[in-house]
Amino acid sequence: MRTVSVIKARNHLDLLLEWVRQGEEVLLLDRGVPVARLGPVPQAQDESLSLLVRKGLVRSGTGRPEL
After folding, report:
1. Fewest C-beta in 10 Å: which of 5, 6, 28, 62?
2. 3 state DSSP class of 5
3. What is the per-residue pLDDT for 52?
C-alpha cells in the first residue's frame, strides 16, 4: 500500500486514481497521521461476467441445460 500526504494527493489526484485503477490502495496522511484509505471499488460478479462476454471470452447461456 502506498502512502501519500494530503497535499501531494491534492496536487496529483490523477496519478492516485491511476494507481487505484490498477488495483492499488493508497493511504492518505495528514501531517503524518493516516486519515483515509483510497482503494478500488470491488466489481460485482455480474459486471465481471459481462466484461468477459464483451471481450468474446465466454458466451451467454440460453438458460436451458443441454441434455
Report:
1. 62
2. strand
3. 86
Structural domains in the chain? 2-55 (3.40.1620.10)
User: Does the pLDDT at position 4 exceed 90?
Assistant: yes
pLDDT at 66: 66
Instruction: Compute CA distances 34 → 11, 24, 38, 53, whole Å.
Output: 18, 17, 11, 40
DSSP code of residue 30:
E
Please return the burial class of 29, using the count of CB atoms within 10 Å of its CB with bins 0-12, 13-18 and 19+: middle
**Helix residue ranges per DSSP H, 1-67:** 6-11, 13-21, 45-55
User: How far, in Å, CA of 18 to CA of 13, rounded?
Assistant: 9
